Amino acid sequence: MMLDRRTLIRTGATAAAIAPAAGALSVAGRPAWAANTIKVGVLTDMSGTYRDLNGPASVACARAAVQEFGPRGFGIEVVFADHQNKPDVAVNIARQWFDRDGVDMVVNLAASSVALALAELTREKNKVAIATSTATSDLTGRACTPNTIHWVFDTYMLAKSTGGATVRAGGDTWFFITADYAFGHALERDTAEFVRAAGGRVLGGVRTPFPGTTDFSSFLLQAQASGAKVIGFANAGTDTTNCIKQAAEFGLTRRGVKLASLLMFLPDVHSLGLAACQGLVCTETFYWDLNDRTRAFTKRVRSQAGDVPLCMNHAGDYSSVLHYLKAVADLGVAAAKADGAAVVARMKAMPTDDDAFGPGRIREDGRKVHPAYLFEVKRPEESHGLFDYYKLLQTTPSEEAFRPLAEGNCPLVRT
Question: Which pLDDT score is estimated for 183?
Fold first, then answer.
């Protein structure tokens, strides 16, 4: 049967589709090919704090995966919705998608609270959830389920790469500026452990009130007074960008202090500018200019997304959707729609390979593994084009980058 591509508008969400040609009969108001159509829902932040790290570019990357996968004898639709970073909103949208709209898989998820809530719902409904922009390592630990996969990054990987690799690169004394809540505490604790394990020392730290802190000058002065070679920012979002801006104003990097953001992305660098971010180190698992394959992927996506800075979250949406569709094709559409856990099991059994991350695999606990890269942000004069912001310092191999399987306490892992 000949297939065509069309763009659908449904209930306020845009859907990119590969579907059987027009003319199929309707059954109860739905086209006859609906039973032979896989529906992917990009559940993300379209309007809030994390829009640039997810949002429209994530939808474009999911569509790019569908286009690359191509016609394989079944229909594919991509829909999206804005969960506003609220778990209750996300659960309500996903429940409607699963119960009424025939969505088979949700991807992206963003905020950890959203991903944890969706993990439970997808297990209840026997669908598939793939977290591509979520930090918590609990998704492959105490909260792991047979219906959930964690792509791209997590707190353990960030701490190991940015902590341990920075010490090996010469940054052997640290001072932490930490957001005073659970996420910040965990990120500081894990990073400090890797710093010490690599032979470094922690000279001190300070907890900053969260939320609401905008002036970090006194904390930065304490960090400078400690004499530490590295200031580690165990925070995220606006807290991180404010820290970096104010550190630039004080000229800390010009005095030889290394800034280490424990959770930062290329769009953040783009927003702040190289003058403020130069010399900062951070970890991502994807960079558009890493190799020929990442450049080819970026070129394809920009034809849909435009000239926007792509980060590892966006790449994860493409990579995970592509691998999911490969597993559906291998399993069969009817079986895939009937049993999300079976699709996840098939995804784990199949090696991964795509232009964003290269070859990899999905472990028993649902952790997708691939290398982690420690980058340094270039000086303005080192940049030679649009989004030419990073230079590679260290690579952590895929089998070393993430928490060992036996340490996560995932109930799916047989000991």
Answer: 79
Rounded Cα gap, residues 145 and 168, in angstroms: 36
Among 177, 237, 182, smallest CA distance to 204 is for: 177
CA dihedral of residues 31, 124, 128, 119 (deg, nearest 10) = 140
Token pair in block for residue 337: 């729609």
CA distance linking residue 93 with residue 109, whole number of Å: 12
- Fill in the DSSP letter of residue 86: -
Task: Give kind and range of the element (H or E) at residue 188.
Answer: helix 182-197
Whether the pTM exceeds 0.85: the reply is: yes
Question: H-type helices in 45-86, by residue range?
Answer: 55-69
What angle (nearest 5°) sits at the alpha carbon of residue 153, between those of residues 147 and 157?
120
> Which amino acid type is present at position 249?
E
Which domains are present in the chain?
Answer: 3-153+291-370 (3.40.50.2300), 156-284+371-401 (3.40.50.2300)
| Rg of the chain taking only CA atoms, in angstroms | 21
Please tell me whether residue 392 adopts helix, strand or coil conformation. Answer: strand
Q: Is the N-terminal amide bond of 211 cis, ω within 30° of 0?
A: yes
Closest CA to 264 of 370, 377, 111: 377
pLDDT-based confidence at residue 48 (cuts at 50, 70, 90)? confident
**Type of residue found at 265:** F
Q: Rounded to whole angstroms, how far apart are CA atoms 143 and 119?
A: 8
- The residue-averaged pLDDT of 295-304 equals 94
User: Token match 């990579």: residue?
Assistant: 319
Average pLDDT over every residue of 286-297: 98
Percent of the chain that is helix, strand, coil (3-state, to 5): 45, 25, 35
Bridge partners, 4 (sequence order): 19
- Helix axis angle for 340-349 and 312-331, nearest 10°, is 100
Determine the Cα–Cα distance for residues 324 and 155; give it in Å rounded to an integer. 24
